[in-house]
Every structure is written in structure tokens, then in C-alpha cells.
Design a protein that fits this description.
Layout lengths: L1 H13 L1 H22 L12 H7 L6 E4 L2 E4 L23 H10 L4 H13 L4 E5 L5 E4 L2 E4 L3 E2 L2 E6 L3 E6 L2 E6 L1
Antiparallel strand pairs: 1-2, 3-4, 4-5, 6-7, 7-8, 8-9
């Protein structure tokens, strides 16, 4: 028997595909064998039967006995939204407090006011063309502006094939063709 087993192992080791096939067939065979042995698998298990729980008075108040089964009442519907976040549960850092106070008053911060003014000024700019080369340049509002040059208070930082990046008061704006 040992010789037959050793020959079988040697044949399987020679070919990986054959080894994989034998292993998968063995796994399927073991699953089927286990299924045959466990034909009468219990669906539920409990430490005490329902009769002993009802007889000892340990049954929940919502449970009612009818024959040999226990019936539970339908749970009450939830009165709150489980997915709504409660902002009071989260602590705020000191750096967030001034921002929240300003937002509550409805007044934008000075940085926000500056940014909005720059955006409004940038809305007046029109990028007409871009030239790339040794010194890139952009044609903005009818004027040729090289990188580092200024137009309408904006400084041209750099140019791409179809856009130009300008800066004013620390706020960067990208104009596109």
C-alpha cells in the first residue's frame, strides 16, 4: 500500500495541473462526504428548551406561549433617526470657534472678502491665446503678458497649453481658453 501511495505522490508531483485537479477533487469529495454524514443538521440550538423557559417563568415579557412555540411581539418603531449626526457629541477645537462664530453672524471673514474681490476682478479678464517657448506668454484682454508680467493688477505665474495662472493678493486664478 505504501508503494502505491508513493507512486501516486510521485506522479502528482511531476505535473502541477494534475496536482491541482487531485486536490480540488479531494476537497469536493470531503465536502460531499461531510454532507452525507450530517444529513440531519439541527437548524437551531438552545441550552434550555422552550418548555423549561416558560415553566420557570424566565420568558421575556413580550413573549407568549402557544402550544410548544414562543411568539414574540413586533418591536416598536424607532422614534429617532439613527443616521443623523448630533453635533453636540463632537468637541470643537479652539481654532474652529472663531470661524463658527463668524459663520453664525452671517459675516464673511476678511480672507473670504478678499478672495471674492479677486474672483470678481478676474471675471473681467479674458484669455485669448497662449504662447509657449523660452519665455511663455499669454494674450489677456488684448495685451501680451509674459510670465512675471502684470495685467489689471494680476501677475502671470505660468502658462499651460490652454490656460494661464495669475495671482493677485495671494489668491491664484486659472484662466482657460
Amino acid at each position: 500500500m505504501k508503494d502505491l501511495f508513493d507512486k501516486t505522490v510521485a506522479v502528482i508531483k511531476e505535473d502541477r495541473r494534475r496536482a491541482a485537479t487531485v486536490a480540488s477533487l479531494a476537497a469536493v469529495g470531503m465536502l460531499l462526504w461531510g454532507r452525507l454524514l450530517l444529513k440531519q443538521v439541527p437548524q437551531t440550538a438552545s441550552a434550555d428548551g422552550p418548555d423549561t423557559a416558560l415553566a420557570s417563568g424566565n420568558a421575556p415579557s413580550a413573549a407568549r406561549a402557544s402550544g410548544g412555540t414562543v411568539t414574540l411581539d413586533k418591536p416598536q418603531p424607532l422614534t429617532r433617526d439613527l443616521f443623523r449626526l448630533d453635533p453636540n457629541r463632537y468637541s470643537r477645537t479652539l481654532s474652529e470657534e472663531p470661524l463658527l462664530n463668524e459663520a453664525k453672524l452671517g459675516q464673511p471673514s476678511p480672507d473670504e472678502v478678499k478672495r471674492m474681490a479677486v474672483v470678481e476682478a478676474a471675471a473681467e479678464l479674458r484669455l485669448q491665446s497662449v504662447t509657449l517657448g523660452e519665455v511663455p506668454a499669454a494674450f489677456i484682454n488684448g495685451r501680451l503678458v509674459r510670465v512675471g508680467g502684470r495685467v489689471e493688477g494680476f501677475e502671470l505665474l505660468h502658462c499651460d497649453e490652454r490656460s494661464a495662472v495669475l495671482e493677485k493678493d495671494g489668491v491664484k486664478v486659472r484662466l482657460r481658453l
